[in-house]
Amino acid sequence: MNRKNGDRLVVIVGGTTPPTGGVTVHVRRLGFLLSREGYEVQVFDVYGRKPFDEELPYKVHRGAKLSVLSKFLFTVLTRRPNIVHWHMASGLNLGPYLPVWRVLSAVTKLVITVHGGRFPERVGEAELAIRNRYAVAFSHASAVIGVSEKITKTLSEKLAVPPERIRMLPAYLPVSLEFGSENADVCEINEGVILATGFAHPTYNWEELIDALGELEYQRVDFVFYNTYIQPYFDEVLERLAESGLREVVVHRDISPRAFARMLEKAQIFVRPTLTDGDSVAVREALAIGTVVVASDSVERPDGCHVYSSGSSSDLNHLLQKALNGEITGSVETVDFGGGIAELYHQIVESELKGIMK
Q1: Quick one: pLDDT at residue 2?
Q2: Which of 121, 314, 328, 345 is most buried, judging by how many CB atoms fall within 10 Å of its CB?
Q3: Distances in Å between the alpha carbon of 113 and those of 45, 58, 186, 204, 356?
């Protein structure tokens, strides 16, 4: 059935929780935000993981990728949503989907969010023919959101996306959006631990963090790994942790966003040693809570972060020691980027950008 007059339907394409990563948490909380704004929201989850035991105020389609994509196309063609919002990370491996973007632009308004910190690098390394193909694909979007200045610059300069269609909106949305959401898993954590999170991937620079931690006289360090791994590398990280001399290392997997937020509240320090980043939702969440954030200088970090020279485990060790001694403290960031997304949606749905939007 077609969408009724007055209905406001948004279709989101992209992974949602689980796993609990930056993109998936953003998509999850965007569903909460848009539901609060009065939209009917349907999320088409391309990861297909077993969901948490919880009720959500929006519908999530999961399963085999081909099945999910078939349901997505059926929904678009029969319901004619106001907006289709496509979320992508860093990969330039969307070739089969690029023609779909053109079809979508003919029947609805297409919004694309680029999350991945490695996106600028990969675009820069891509052959001209591939860049041109993506430039054409992005031209079908009414708006393209980059979660960092580096990404929006790449969209403008390398992929020729018109500046008036580009929005720079960090991906962080507050956990408070998850009203009435209860998760089955609760992670117990002691007060005052050091906490780090990310994929088991070399980009997350776990070796440098482990080297820096090995020099500290400290009781406990908690690592939260998302449930997607490069298994040989993950095994190497676990082996290195075992050999680090740390007295207590706790490895968590497959936890929910609400459980992770509780961990951040109790942690003394959150560490982000990555070699690159998009927005890093976890960094902004830690800042919003008031936890001390120590992060690499591989990208521009939000105000309130204590940064060290990427590649220097001794510099990282020095900052961690200062944080443990109370010489540096947390700085609360309270920026709510959800308002920018809601306003963009409002402008598209209400056709307030007729001279700008497609």
Answers
A1: 57
A2: 345
A3: 15, 20, 31, 22, 18
